[in-house]
C-alpha cells in the first residue's frame, strides 16, 4: 500500500535534440554516445527517445570514471 500521497512520477522522454541541449553538446555527440552504448536509448519504431534520468546517471558514471583514470 502506498502511503505517499503524491502521484507516481512518469519518466521524462526526450529527443536527441533535447538531450544535446540539456548537456550542452552537439547532436552528433549524442549520436556517437548512443552508438558507443554510453547513453541508453529506446527505439519506438522509427523514433529514438531517451529517458532523462538514465542519461543523467550514465553521463555521471562516465565523468567519474574519466576523472579516476586521470588521477
What does this entry look like structurally?
By secondary structure, this protein is an alpha+beta fold. The longest helix is centred in the C-terminal third of the chain and has 19 residues, at 52-70. The chain has helices spanning 16-22, 27-35, 52-70, and strands at residues 13-14, 42-44, 47-51. The chain is globular, with a radius of gyration of 15 Å. Helices cover 49% and strands 14% of the residues. The N and C termini lie far apart (47 Å). Helix 1 packs across helix 2 (27-35). Strands 1-3-2 form a 3-stranded antiparallel beta sheet. It has one domain. It is built from 3 helices and 3 strands, in the order E-H-H-E-E-H.
Poorly predicted segments: none
Question: What's the tally of helices?
Answer: 3
Distance between the termini: 47 Å
Strand content: 5-15%
Q: Structurally, how many domains make up the residues?
A: 1
Summarize the amount of helix as a percent range. Answer: 40-55%
Strands, count: 3
In angstroms, what is the radius of gyration? 15 Å
Could you state the order of secondary-structure elements as H and E?
EHHEEH
Oligomer state equals single chain
- Please state how the strands of the largest beta sheet are arranged side by side: 1-3-2
The largest pleated sheet is described as: 3 strands, antiparallel
Shape: globular
> Mean pLDDT score, rounded?
85
Return the structural class. Answer: alpha+beta
